[in-house]
Amino acid sequence: MTDTPKGDVVGEAVPAAQKSSWASFLKSIASVSGDLSSLTAPPFILSGISLTEFPAYWCERPELFSDIADAKDEESRSIAVLKWFISTLKSQYTSRNEKLGSEKKPLNPVLGELFYGSWPDINGRGQTNLLVEQVSHHPPITAFYIENPSKGIYLRGHNAQKTSFSGGSIIVKQIGHAVLTVDLPGGGKEEFLITLPRLRIDGLWYGSPYIELTETSYIQSSTGWLSTIEYKGKGYFSGKSHSFKAGLSPPGTLAARHTFEGTWHQTSRDAATGALFTDVTGPKEEVAVRALDAQSEWESRRLWRGVATGIREGDFDTASREKSKIENEQRQRRKDEAAAGTKWELKHFDHIDSDPVYERLGKLFKANPPTEDAYVYRHNYVLEP
């Protein structure tokens, strides 16, 4: 099943033997009035991929990330950042749908979980490196740092989710933001504050969940250029699911100088000229990671190896057993820390209560909330080429 709209289709995502478990899961969702993040999903609806891996989706088209550094001026740089950002959305929000037949719930990471990866230097684009750490378990918060040092591009951010149930859909408010920093040829830096879209997970009653992005997100440059991105489902801008419309405004005005529209999982165009803007229908580049045996016990793919194998092979009993083992070990670790009066120490990030970049750039478009915390990378790890 593709990532086309599924509102009218009865999906095949739920195995016949698991339909009663799915029905029970839906009842548990509907009965919760607050945050859903603590609910335990049945194994057959899990993706086998931890949320700790998700920041890799920001750079599965590394040439677009690299292209930002080659822009000649502030306006073209903001266009390049917008193009790169829109091109990250398909991997983040529909890749499991395409690959697995429906949206799957990622594994809830453990505190301290790590993920390292890279994309190689090809044709002078520079090597892009990724470092991710799960910095909180309740609530689940993922901090990440992405860099292309030879191009002078750096991205840091964090992401958490607050979920609720409304009107037959799961509503996901993404908490957090990202800051992209670009070293300029003449010295100095340009910064971009990137806010995160909200999600709505539909298709639950058909056993074939899929994601729609909703509301508005922003990309604010320190030069004053602002991208305002509106997300709509089927029947709005283009009559298609996964639609968006983005306006890029120069400093001092909200009037868009450029408008781009289309679908974020396929193609989009410049509204004025019709020129192609984004096209994510072609292949993407998976992140390269070390072999499992070379990874530490805290690295995501080694940590969840047994669970992922069980899910991939349809052996849900094994997947459930391996998942429970990890979760029980984590509960015991927290009990031991409480008994000893100690606290888990983060490995790569420091938490700050208020991000000065968010506060400074957020004022330019009246960000809500006006302040937000952040996780600052310590620069204490070197990824091997």
Automatic annotation (TrEMBL):
- Region: Disordered, residue numbers: 315-339
Instruction: Name a GO molecular-function annotation.
Output: oxysterol binding
The superkingdom listed in its UniProt entry is: Eukaryota
A Pfam family (short name) is: Oxysterol_BP
Q: Which GO terms describe its cellular component?
A: cytosol; membrane
Describe the family membership recorded for this protein in Swiss-Prot or TrEMBL: Belongs to the OSBP family.
Q: What is this protein called?
A: Oxysterol-binding protein
UniProt source species: Daedalea quercina L-15889
